[in-house]
Design goal:
By secondary structure, the chain is an alpha+beta fold. The strands form six sheets. The chain has a nine-stranded mixed sheet, with helices on one face. The longest helix has 28 residues.
Length: 873
C-alpha cells in the first residue's frame, strides 16, 4: 500500500467525528513519547554497533531498519491523530527516507543530489556521497577549520553515474564480475576491457559544458597559466579503507586535457590492483563510485607527509613524524626520493625531538607541457634542512587541529608554496600497525592519577578525551567554543551538535544516553558522560582533565597513557560489508539537522533523517498538547470541580484521567485529593507562607488606566474564558491557565520516570501598571527562571520559559518554585519603582524559596563556578 493510501485510511473515520475527548488525545500524546523513546533506543543500539564491540549481520540491519520504519510511521500517525491533521509533509519526508534505506539494503545505491560539479567552497563532510570521502574532507578542512587548501571543484559521483550509464559501463562491470571465474588472469582481462572502454567513451555534453565553466572560473583565480591536479575521491576512499595508492592522480594538467585526465582517474577505478583491493575487502559493485577533485596546482617549494602519531619502541604515541623534501610531494608518498625525517613533540609549541637531514639531490617540478619532471637540486640546498622550525611548528599545529577535529590520528599530505604558505593537500585516518601498540600499562599509570569523580552518571559514548573544561549553558555563544575543549554543561542539548567536531568530550549533570545529544555524540564518536549530577560543581572552566568514558572516571590533569591507549586501539570490524552498510544507513537515520525550534527551517520539509522527524514531532506534540488543554470541546466529557482549599485562586480542576481521587459525583475537592504529580507540586509551592501576598498595593491612576487600554490576543491571554482559573490534570500531566488580577499565566508540565519525556512550559504576561514596571517584573521572572536553568525569552512584559529532560526530583523542585514564583510576582509590578529593585527581589525570592523546598526534593547543589549556587541544580 502506498504512503498516500495509508494516510487516507488513517483519516477515514475522522469525517463524522465532531470532537475527541482530551483523555483519548492524551493517550496519543503518551504514545508519541513512548515511540520517541523507542526510536532513540533503536538509534542508540545501531550506533553502538559501529563502536566495534559487537558483531552483527545483515539480518540485524534489516530487522532494526524495519522496526525504525514501523515506529517512525506510527509516530507520524499518532501525531496526526493528536493534531487532527494529515501531516502530509511529514509522511512525504518519511517516504523519502524509507525509500533510500530500502534501496541501500537491496544493493541499489544511488548518489544524492543532481549536481555534476561542485566548487570546493560549497563542500563539507555532509557532501561525502556526492564528492567522495577525500574531497568532502578537503572541503571541511577549508570551510570549517579554515586551513588553506588549493582552490578547485569536484566532478561528482552523479557525473560518474551519468557517464558510466550513458555508455553502458556499469552493466559491463556488474556482468563481468558476476561471470568472473575467480582467477587473476580473467580479472586482469576484465580490468583491461573496462579501462579501455572508459577511455574510448564520450562524456555527456552537459558534463563537459559544466567542467569548462568551472575551469573558466578557476582561470580567473590564477595569476599564472592554469594548471590543475586531478585527484581521485571514491566512495570509501580515505574512510573505512584507505585505498592508498590504488587510484590515479593526474598532475600539472592543462585545461584542454582535463576531460582526458578525468577519464584516466575514472578508469583507475577498474585497474587490476584497485579491483582486487575491493574484492579482498568484500566490496560490492554497487558500492563503487568515483568523484574527482580538480585543484589548482600548488607552486610547491617544499612538500611531504605528516603522521600526527607515531609508535615508538615503548609502543606509545609520544611524537609526530614529518617527511619532507624539495619540490612536489608525489615522490615522497611513492618513496622515490630522499627525505628529511623530523620527530616533533605532541605538546605545544611542538619542538623538534630528533632530526635526520638527508642529502636531497633531485626534486619534482612541473613540466612545461604537463605532468612533472625531475630536476637537480641546487648544491647549496642539498644538505640543509628543507623546513625551518617556524614551518615545523605551523605544520604541527595544523596536524593536531586535524587530529582533534577528526578524533583520530591523521596522515597528512602538505606543501609550502614559494610564498611560504602552507597548503593541506589531503588528510586521511592514520592506520596503525596492528596490535603492536598494545598493551599499554594503563592500570599502573591511572593508579597514581587523581580521580575527581568516578561511577557517576551514564556513558553515552565510550572513549577517552584529554583537554580543558569549557563550561557551557544556554546563553553560551557556541561559535566561540575552542578546538579540543571538553564541553561541560548542566544539560544535554541538540544545540551541541554544532561543536561536536571541535569538542573532544562531553560531560553533563543531567540527561539520558538515549537523548538527542547522545545520539549525535555516538554518530560523531565523541566520548560522552551524561547525568553525573554534579559535574558543573566539581569541574571548573579551564581545568585540564582526562575523561575516561569507557570506565566512567574523570581524572584531574592529563593522563597521557589513557590518551595513548585510546589512539592505539585498532578499529574493529570496519572492513566488513555489514559495517559499511550500517554506516551508510545511519547517515539517513541519526544526524540531527533540526536543532533550533525557533528557526525558520524547523519544519517538516527540512527533515532529512528519522532523527529530524522524531525531534520535530516531539517538539510540536508538546505545543499541540498546550493548545488542546485549552479547548473546551476536548474537555467536555471530563468532570470539573472547584478547589476549596490551598491558595485563593478560585481554581477549577478538570480531571482528564487520574488527576484526582475524589468521588465521581463530587462538585468540589481539596488539595489532599489531588493525585496529579506536577499540579500538586505547583499548588504546594504556591501555598508557602509569605509567597502569596494579599496586602493591597497602591497603584497610580496612570498605571491603572493603562491596563484598560491594552489589548490581549487570545494566544497571549490563555483560555478563551479570560478570568477563569482552570487546571487540566492527569496523573503525570497538568495544564494551568490563570488570570491573577491583570496578568495571565500558563503552565504546562509533564513529569514521569522517563527522563526524555519530561518538560515544563511557563508563560507570564500582563499587569496593572505601565509598561516600564511590567517589564521590570518580566525581568525579575526571567532572572529567577534562568537561575533554575530554564531557557527564557522576554518580549516586553511577556516571559516564556522552557525546560525539559530532567529527573522527576529536579522537575518537582521547579514546579514547587513556579508555584512560589506565581504567588510572589502577583502584585510585584506595582512595587518595582526602580531597576535596582529587580535584582534585590530576585535574590530575596531565591533565598526564600530555597528554604521551603521539601527535604525529599533536596539535591546536590550545582553551580556555574561563579561563586553563586544554582538553586535548581
Amino acid at each position: 500500500m502506498g504512503i498516500m493510501a495509508r494516510i487516507a485510511n488513517l483519516f477515514m473515520g475522522w469525517r463524522n467525528e465532531q470532537s475527541v475527548t482530551f483523555a483519548l488525545l492524551f493517550k496519543k500524546f503518551k504514545s508519541i513519547l513512548e515511540r520517541n523513546n523507542r526510536i532513540l533506543e533503536l538509534m542508540a543500539d545501531m550506533g553502538d554497533k559501529l563502536g566495534g564491540e559487537y558483531i552483527f549481520d545483515n539480518k540485524y540491519i534489516e530487522d532494526a531498519t524495519f522496526q525504525l520504519n514501523d515506529q517512525v510511521f506510527k509516530l507520524i500517525s499518532d501525531m496526526s491523530v493528536l493534531t487532527q491533521s494529515k501531516n502530509t509533509a511529514l509522511f512525504l519526508a518519511f517516504e523519502r527516507i524509507q525509500h533510500i534505506l530500502e534501496e541501500e539494503i537491496a544493493g541499489r545505491r544511488h548518489p544524492e543530489g543532481s549536481r555534476m560539479v561542485l566548487p570546493f567552497q560549497d563542500i563539507g563532510i555532509e557532501a561525502e556521497d556526492e564528492v567522495g570521502g577525500k574531497i568532502s574532507q578537503l572541503g571541511d578542512i577549508s570551510n570549517r577549520l579554515h586551513l588553506q587548501t588549493p582552490k578547485g571543484f569536484a566532478i561528482t559521483t552523479t557525473a560518474f553515474f551519468a557517464f558510466m550509464s550513458h555508455n553502458g559501463l556499469l552493466d559491463l562491470a556488474q556482468k563481468g564480475i558476476e561471470q568472473w571465474d575467480g582467477t587473476d588472469q580473467e580479472l586482469h582481462e576484465l580490468a583491461d576491457l573496462m579501462q579501455s572502454r572508459i577511455m574510448d567513451s564520450p562524456l555527456p555534453w552537459r558534463l563537459v559544458a559544466q567542467i569548462d565553466a568551472m575551469i573558466d572560473v578557476l582561470s580567473k583565480c590564477s595569476a599564472h597559466p592554469l594548471r590543475l591536479a586531478l585527484r581521485s575521491s571514491a566512495w570509501g576512499e580515505d574512510g573505512d579503507s584507505s585505498f592508498a595508492g590504488q587510484y590515479a592522480t593526474e598532475l600539472n594538467v592543462s585545461p584542454d586535457r582535463v576531460v582526458e585526465a578525468y577519464k584516466t582517474v575514472v578508469a583507475s577505478t577498474y585497474s587490476l590492483e584497485a579491483w582486487r583491493y575491493r574484492l579482498d575487502r568484500g566490496y560490492h559493485e554497487h558500492e563503487v563510485a568515483m568523484a574527482v577533485g580538480c585543484q589548482i596546482m600548488a607552486d610547491s617549494r617544499i612538500s611531504g607527509v605528516l603522521f600526527t602519531c607515531t609508535q615508538t619502541s615503548s609502543a606509545t604515541c609520544e611524537s609526530m613524524i614529518v617527511s619532507a623534501t624539495w619540490g612536489g610531494g608525489a615522490a615522497v608518498v611513492a618513496g622515490e626520493t630522499a627525505t628529511d625525517t623530523i620527530y616533533l613533540s605532541r605538546t605545544p609549541p611542538y619542538p623538534p625531538l630528533t632530526r635526520a637531514i638527508a642529502r636531497k639531490t633531485r626534486r619534482l617540478v612541473p613540466a612545461a607541457r604537463g605532468d612533472l619532471v625531475w630536476e637537480d637540486v641546487p648544491e647549496d640546498l642539498q644538505n640543509i634542512p628543507s623546513l625551518t622550525d617556524s614551518q615545523l611548528e605551523q605544520l604541527a599545529r595544523a596536524g593536531m587541529s586535524l587530529e582533534r577535529y577528526y578524533k583520530r590520528p591523521q596522515d597528512v599530505e602538505w606543501t609550502f608554496d614559494s610564498r611560504g604558505e602552507l597548503h593541506i593537500l589531503q588528510s586521511r585516518p592514520l592506520r596503525s600497525g596492528g596490535d603492536a601498540g598494545l598493551p599499554v600499562p594503563v592500570q599502573s599509570a591511572t593508579r597514581k592519577a587523581e580521580i575527581i569523580f568516578a561511577g557517576k552518571g551514564l556513558v553515552a559514548q565510550r572513549g577517552v578525551a584529554v583537554g580543558k573544561v569549557v563550561l557551557v549553558d544556554h546563553n553560551t555563544d557556541l561559535d566561540q567554543f575552542p578546538e579540543g575543549g571538553i564541553l561541560v554543561s548542566k544539560f544535554t542539548s541538540p544545540r551541541y551538535a554544532r561543536v561536536m567536531r571541535r569538542a573532544c568530550g562531553i560531560i553533563t549533570d543531567v540527561g539520558s544516553p538515549t537523548g538527542h545529544m547522545a545520539t549525535i555524540a555516538r554518530e560523531q564518536r565523541v566520548p560522552a558522560l551524561v547525568n553525573t549530577e554534579e559535574a558543573t560543581r566539581l569541574l571548573h572552566d579551564g581545568d585540564e582533565i582526562t575523561l575516561d568514558a569507557t570506565q566512567n572516571i574523570v581524572y584531574r590533569g592529563r593522563v597521557a597513557e589513557l590518551d595513548k591507549f585510546e589512539r592505539s586501539e585498532p578499529d574493529m570490524f570496519e572492513e566488513s560489508y555489514e559495517y559499511r552498510l550500517l554506516r551508510r544507513l545511519l547517515k539517513h537515520i541519526t544526524p540531527l539537522n533540526l536543532v533550533d525550534p525557533h528557526s525558520d527551517d524547523f519544519k517538516p520539509q527540512a527533515c532529512k533523517t528519522y532523527h529530524d522527524i522524531t525531534r520535530y514531532i516531539h517538539e510540536k506534540a508538546v505545543e499541540a498538547l498546550v493548545v488542546l488543554s485549552q479547548r473546551h470541546d476536548a474537555l467536555h466529557h471530563a468532570p470539573a470541580r472547584r478547589l476549596l482549599d490551598g491558595p485563593p485562586l478560585g481554581l477549577t480542576i478538570i480531571d482528564a484521567g487520574g488527576g484526582t481521587n475524589c468521588p465521581p459525583e463530587a462538585p468540589t475537592l481539596n488539595m489532599e485529593e489531588i493525585t496529579s504529580v506536577p499540579l500538586l507540586a505547583f499548588l504546594q509551592g504556591m501555598s508557602i507562607s509569605g509567597m502569596w501576598d494579599t496586602a493591597p498595593v497602591p497603584v497610580d491612576l496612570g498605571s491603572f488606566m493603562s491596563s484598560f487600554t491594552r489589548t490581549f490576543t487570545a494566544s497571549m491571554a490563555g483560555p478563551e474564558a479570560v478570568g477563569r482559573n482552570l487546571a487540566v490534570a492527569l496523573r503525570d500531566y497538568m495544564n494551568v491557565n490563570m488570570r491573577l488580577g491583570y496578568h495571565f499565566n500558563t503552565i504546562d508540565a509533564y513529569i514521569s520516570e522517563q527522563i526524555n519525556d519530561n518538560y515544563i512550559y511557563f508563560r507570564f504576561i500582563g499587569g496593572v501598571t505601565e509598561l516600564v514596571r511590567r517589564s521590570r517584573r518580566a525581568r525579575f521572572v526571567a532572572n529567577v527562571l534562568d537561575r533554575f536553568d530554564f531557557r527564557v525569552e522576554v518580549h516586553g512584559d511577556l516571559v516564556v520559559g522552557r525546560i525539559k529532560k530532567l529527573s522527576v526530583t529536579r522537575m518537582l523542585v521547579r514546579m514547587h518554585m513556579l508555584g512560589g514564583l506565581v504567588g510572589y510576582a502577583r502584585q510585584l509590578d506595582a512595587r518595582l519603582n526602580s531597576d535596582e529593585l529587580v535584582a534585590k527581589h530576585a535574590q530575596a525570592f531565591l533565598e526564600a524559596i530555597k528554604s521551603t523546598i521539601p527535604a525529599e526534593l533536596a539535591e546536590p547543589t550545582g553551580g556555574k563556578n561563579n561563586g553563586t549556587a544554582h538553586l535548581g541544580a
